[in-house]
Design goal:
heterodimer, A: 96 residues, mainly alpha, 0% strand, B: 455 residues, 6-stranded parallel sheet, 17 helices, elongated
């Protein structure tokens, strides 16, 4: 195992319980916004898509795949965040 | 200058963690969305600044196209369509993950550890892609929402998955022939479709949460393939989040935990051929209902998916206002699996401007039913079925339910006596204290509101 991989595994080991902790605290009231926010965050795959699309040794084929991936993940990011915000705007506590 | 992208990644990781943390309370939730957007922006800019990225114009064009499709999608969809939109949006994200894995494979044809990560990424990516599309189809009712089952279904699925895993293993061990990767991708795509076919509409909350978890896992695997820790952190948070939500949903339906992991939701549909319409029910008019509610001190409303279908939430808000003016206390009881995604009812009620301090979770409000004069059930069925408490033969036996039957009077707004999603008859409807209000939820609530001032 390379040092790189080892470090990545440590990151994973720490990130999973952190995620479990964070999400357990979210009130059921906000479970739908939570779903759509994490849905938007899962589009972090845009990072990989950009790396593939912009890579110097990309063939026409991999470059096309990369660009389609960038389009798809951007749709996910934009729609995910916008709909989350649209929902949260509606939540209010007291009568006007 | 090489470190700029690393700093950008660290800022992005912190923002994404903060984003979920802030989402825990409605007071800071919008801040959470901002943090998430900020983090994503840093991730994108940081990546564009990396020296590996040599040509940018096509990437920028692609980002522009994606934004031009994504924004109208989010603004044009009505609030009742949030589950569909989430599923669709999901399909795009996981497609991206799968394509990245595919491109990486053809660019570098790795073996060993990196390939193992790529295999996990692509199998999860492709299967979640088609599974999300299928979920979207079912929620949008393009695809039949009833579970489609056939003999040996689980066996077929398992064999298919085993094939995909075998092909994946082959590619990990040694550079495989040309046909292996396309076959592997094809099997994963097919598996995603077959996974969702046996699932009914009522199980969608669990499925959507689970697909979310798979998408996160695909991202984390991509992080290992590309040695990118930002991807690992964001992916792991996501996988954990989807996982917890699906566990919560499972508990709320009294399903076992192993059921969740493999998506074996296709529970045996015991069509307990509802012996409906033989027993007498008490039905009432809007006028009767209005008279009882006007004289009540406390009314607890129990919304279900039927409320979403009928778009009754705005009329419900009018009813709440009218009753509150008369000094009647109105509260809302939300079952964890009411609707088609976790927290679905809360969003719809919030859309209708109902304050969230009136919405209560099952455990908090259940003791209150005993002192409620009226429990008004709108479009909910299985989550209020008392059979879950005592009838061991019932498919929903053991599922925690809202104790509406303890209320002084129970009112159920329903189109007809047809049984709900699970195909189970509901003994609640035949109780002496239950009044059945037959009709469309939206217009019926509207009529109650109209009848109220006359009382």
């Amino acid at each position: 195992m390379t040092a790189e991989t080892e470090m990545s595994l440590y990151v994973l080991i720490l990130a999973v319980p952190l995620g479990l902790q964070l999400v357990q605290r979210v009130s059921p009231l906000l479970h739908t916004p939570l779903m759509s926010l994490t849905n938007a965050i899962s589009a972090i795959s845009v990072v990989g898509a950009i790396l593939v699309a912009g890579s110097g040794d990309a063939t026409a084929f991999t470059k096309t795949l990369g660009c389609v991936a960038v389009v798809a993940s951007t749709i996910n990011i934009v729609s995910g965040f916008l709909i989350t915000d649209r929902m949260l705007k509606m939540f209010r506590k007291k009568e006007k | 200058m090489e470190q700029i992208w690393q700093i950008a990644y660290i800022v992005a990781a912190l923002s994404i963690i903060g984003s979920i943390k802030w989402l825990s309370s409605p007071a800071t939730a919008r801040q959470g969305v901002w943090a998430g957007q900020f983090g994503m922006l840093f991730a994108v800019i940081g990546t564009l600044l990396r020296h590996e990225v040599v040509s940018m114009e096509w990437i920028l064009i692609s980002i522009f196209i994606g934004a031009a499709i994504g924004a109208p999608l989010a603004y044009l969809m009505p609030m009742t369509s949030v589950p569909q939109l989430t599923a669709l949006s999901h399909a795009f994200g996981t497609l991206a993950a799968a394509l990245v894995g595919t491109a990486e494979y053809y660019r570098t044809t790795p073996t060993g550890f990196v390939m193992a990560a790529l295999v996990i990424e692509t199998v999860l990516g492709y299967l979640t892609f088609t599974a999300s599309l299928m979920a979207f189809g079912k929620l949008q009712e393009i695809v039949p929402t009833r579970p489609i089952t056939y003999k040996g279904q689980n066996f077929v699925n398992l064999v298919l998955l085993a094939f995909a895993v075998a092909l994946g293993a082959w590619m990990i061990v040694e550079p495989a022939p040309f046909w292996v990767f396309p076959a592997f991708a094809g099997l994963s795509l097919l598996f995603g479709v077959l996974l969702i076919i046996p699932i009914g509409g009522g199980d969608m909350p669990t499925v959507i949460a689970l697909l979310n978890s798979y998408a996160g896992a695909a991202c984390a695997a991509m992080g290992f393939a590309l040695s990118n820790r930002l991807l690992i952190i964001a992916g792991a948070l996501n996988a954990a989040s989807g996982f917890i939500l699906s566990v919560i949903m499972c508990k709320a339906m009294n399903r076992s935990f192993t059921n969740v992991l493999f998506g074996a939701f296709g529970q045996v549909q015991q069509t307990t051929s509802a012996q409906a319409s033989t027993k007498p029910v008490h039905s009432a008019t809007a006028e009767d209902a209005a008279a009882i509610m006007a004289g009540a001190r406390k009314v607890i409303v129990v919304p279900g998916y039927g409320m979403a279908v009928a778009q009754a939430q705005h009329k419900l808000r009018e009813l709440t206002d009218a009753l509150t003016k008369r000094g009647v206390e109105v509260q809302f009881a939300i079952h964890p699996v009411a609707g088609r995604m976790p927290g679905h009812m809360n969003v719809l009620l919030a859309e209708a401007d109902i304050p969230y301090d009136k919405m209560h979770e099952m455990e908090d409000i259940n003791p209150d039913f005993a002192e409620a004069d009226v429990a008004l059930v709108i479009g909910a069925n299985d989550v209020v079925n008392p059979a879950a408490r005592h009838d061991t033969a019932s498919p929903i036996y053991g599922m925690p339910i809202l104790d509406v039957d303890k209320a002084h009077t129970v009112m159920v707004i329903k189109r007809s006596m047809n049984p709900g999603f699970a195909g189970i008859d509901n003994e609640l409807y035949y109780m002496d204290r239950t009044l059945m209000l037959f009709g469309d939820a939206k217009s019926f609530v509207g009529e109650i509101v109209k009848e109220l001032p006359a009382v």
